[in-house]
Amino acid sequence: MSEIIKAILLGIIEGFTEWLPISSTGHMILADEFIRLNMSDAFKEMFFVVVQLGAILAVVILYFQKLNPFSAQKTDEERKETLTLWLKVALACVPAGIVGVLFEDSIDAIFYNWQTVTITLILYGILFLIVERRNRTRSFRLHHFSELDIRTAFLIGLFQVLSLIPGTSRSGATILGAMLIGTSRAVAAEFSFFLAIPIMFGASFIKILKFGLAFSGMEALVLLAGMASAFIVSLLAIKFLMGYIRKHDFTLFGYYRIGLGLLVLLYFVLNQ
Q1: Range 106-111 contact pairs with CB under 8 angstroms and sequence separation of 24 or more
Q2: Could you tell me which residues come within 8 angstroms of residue 202 by beta carbon, excluding any fewer than 6 positions away?
Q3: Model confidence over 184-198: pLDDT tens digits?
Q4: First CA to last CA across the chain, in angstroms?
């Protein structure tokens, strides 16, 4: 199979799973068993992070008006609200940013394995079921971004630190955390999207620096193909998720995580 076709398939998986609370890492570990890039280990390590830039671009485009504080279409008050939103995003990214920079390599060395991914997939799947069952008898206190204060944003950022453990899911950790402290599903999901922008840009920048900028022609094509497919699929995945949670909760994703965790467990136990 052509390496470019493999990159496109991996980008599709990344774009679909990055925004849904189902763990892109868990899917990538399984995908790597069947879609192995015939590239250097250093390139593959970089590829699996930097391919996320395509997914991030989808968020920037879909929410450009909401995230752009300099839009001529906004009033002074709306521009101020947008700048405040960015302040909340920046503050919420501080905990994961600090822990990631200091300990990412150690965390990956200890936890980047199918056993950890199996446990976190199932554990957070169960947590989604528990939280959503609790939500049936409770109402959310925050329904709009204007109600999301600095303290709440920072607390959500603390939950994002959990996503550094493979299989947790960055969106899963932040959405669960946000709902636990009273944030509605829609605000929790969108804030999770926005938190990804600085975190993923930062992680990609670090990986590119470590790898170096001397890409071969094939490496550049493979990376661009993966990013392009991740971008296109991310547009669809984000629209799907926001449409879905207007009428449903996250229970389905909880069951999906448990099922995927059991599948990962079964696959690796049978192939050891």
Answers
A1: 107/164, 107/165, 108/166, 111/165, 111/166
A2: 97, 100
A3: 999 999 999 999 999
A4: 25
The pair of structure tokens assigned to 101 is 């920079």
Question: Which tens digit of pLDDT belongs to each residue from 156-187?
Answer: 999 999 999 989 998 999 999 999 999 999 99
Lookup result for tokens 């094939």: 218
Distance between CA atoms of residues 237 and 64, nearest Å? 17
User: pLDDT at residue 83 above 90?
Assistant: yes
Write out the chain in H/E/C secondary structure.
CCHHHHHHHHHHHHHHHCCCCCCHHHHHHHHHHHCCCCCCHHHHHHHHHHCHHHHHHHHHHHCHHHHCCCCCCCCHHHHHHHHHHHHHHHHHHHHHHHHHHHHHHHHHHHHCCHHHHHHHHHHHHHHHHHHHHHHCCCCCCECCHHHCCHHHHHHHHHHHHHHHCCCCCHHHHHHHHHHHCCECHHHHHHHHHHHHHHHHHHHHHHHHHHHCCCCCHHHHHHHHHHHHHHHHHHHHHHHHHHHHCCCCCCHHHHHHHHHHHHHHHHHHHHCC
